[in-house]
């Protein structure tokens, strides 16, 4: 059957096979290129520039998925772009979330630049999900899913190679083509996050299994298995005795090759999960094994690969144990030994500080049950709320999607959003499991990939990254509209091109905004990595603060490098609502003290002390032994020539031990300021310490020492404060 079709760069007639999947020629090439830019590039891009290690990955994902929308808009019939059905529930959920994002600057003080950036990603997710639903409703599921699976499989195998380099040959990781993992025996891929690497590996396993399953399900009379002319002539000329001798048919040989390719694809990907040391990845492997046991419509080869994936992981882990014990590889021995223990980590916190974060999040939910703390404000509220037993790293997410929504949106709105999402997920699963044939196989595979993201979202926040959110939205859209309602053919009078024009316009606007954001990002890159011939630090900061989307990064640089942070007090209004870390909290506390906001400065200093951060050790050294520490300062300030030697002698008696740090959950890679700001000069505290008797000295003998009063960081506030007192 021939069907008229308008494709990207195509014209004329496109062939349609019996399963309704188009073979669009150059349109398929355009789709492969778009998926490569949308999936492979974000996962494989290692090169980055400070201050955000993942900005270019997310920009590539946004631009790539805009390209996918453009190709599908030109490819699919126009009427299908208006498909609603189960997608209505997803649109309502995204609409409520969009409302919360846009309202957060109004009442929660979130900077508008952060709010609008998040709103744009939410709109992009809705558009991508709509295109996935349109492709499925047009019976193009297989035609669309095939290039997506190939790109994911290739990206996963290349990332597995990156993991091998990071674990066994870390010296080859140059940071440009292969990212540095940070050590600890965990491979992190070019995304620089071990759990993200594990999820990519699992998605790639699913893609490889689907590609192999399609080959295993081909009928024997398929042209791929038909004997050649020479084979047929040779068989006719053989004696009957030779003909009776059993030999492998072409179909059997093809299946053997498929099984070998399946093993060659699954084994390195599962090994990549083990190399990441991700226990979230282990849960994903168990989910894949459950799929293999549950779905009896899969061929035995595919089911064996899925069920055997956890066994392969166990074998790889045992191999690492043997390699670490043998000491055969001295160069990578330490890394291999650490990797062998990563999945168990005896003596460590099994939850990697998640239980502590969830406990603090529940307390915030109880304190703010109706309206929450505001979208994007978790870090601000959690950091400024007293918590003596808090984890020692600076987090900006609750590491659990339901808790994240409830603490930021409030319980009523969060329950509404989660209810709509769960109902959407239920309908998507029903549609995927009802269908048969290749169409049903593609839908079930897409749904399993969505479930993997659901599992990951219970322990982290992958959906806050465009390179995970947009593929998940597309796959969910495919599953939602999976029902069979009509053939792919449309009469000319049925085609409505206005949705196509709308989708094209939105995608083109998205491309333009992404390009503008990349250009705008260079204004803050110059602060942290100045090019040759750039101006002074003050000039670069002033230019960065005029950025449209990233001015909060420049504000951070302004307040953490100022000799007197109070001189740039307005900069805290944006910087503090992005991520509060040790340098920023210290500078903010100093600025509040300089402006005579006594209780707020003391409260902030107390919250900083709860993190037990090494960068704040010098800030609190005076509190460990105030008499000796102040004596050091008095001697150092003496006008005689022996001041330096006397200060050095007095400093030897000052005890400022740094408490040992537990093994916390890794901080968010996009907001880890500690390493990026390490080159900044430390803010200079004022010479004159506050006079008068301290309200609550830590050392009773200090009041009789005759030295000046304790500095503010050693004192408690006179009244209880909360995060609302800092908005």
Essential attributes:
3-stranded antiparallel β-sheet, single chain, mainly alpha, 60% helix
User: Please, how many helices?
Assistant: 28
Q: Strand share of the residues? A: under 5%
Strand segment count: 3
| Average pLDDT number | 78
Sheet with the most strands, sense and barrel status:
3 strands, antiparallel
Span of the ends, CA to CA: 65 Å
Poorly predicted residue ranges: 1-23, 220-231, 484-495, 640-707
Residues in helix, % = 55-70%
**Could you say which overall geometry the principal axes of the C-alpha atoms support?**
globular
Q: Strand order of the main beta sheet, please?
A: 1-2-3
Which structural class is indicated by helix and strand composition? mainly alpha
Radius of gyration: 30 Å
Structure description:
- β2 and β3 form a beta hairpin.
- Strands 1-2-3 form a three-stranded antiparallel sheet, with no helix packed on it.
- The protein is mainly alpha-helical.
- The chain has helices at residues 26-44, 55-75, 87-107, 112-137, 141-168, 194-216, 229-237, 240-244, 250-276, 279-294, 300-326, 333-342, 354-367, 378-383, 401-409, 411-434, 437-457, 466-480, 498-528, 537-544, 551-561, 572-575, 582-594, 598-611, 617-624, 626-636, 643-651, 673-676; strands at residues 2-4, 13-16, 22-23.
- Helix content is 60%, strand content 1%.
- The N and C termini lie far apart (65 Å).
- The protein is globular and about 90 Å long.
- The relative contact order is 0.11.
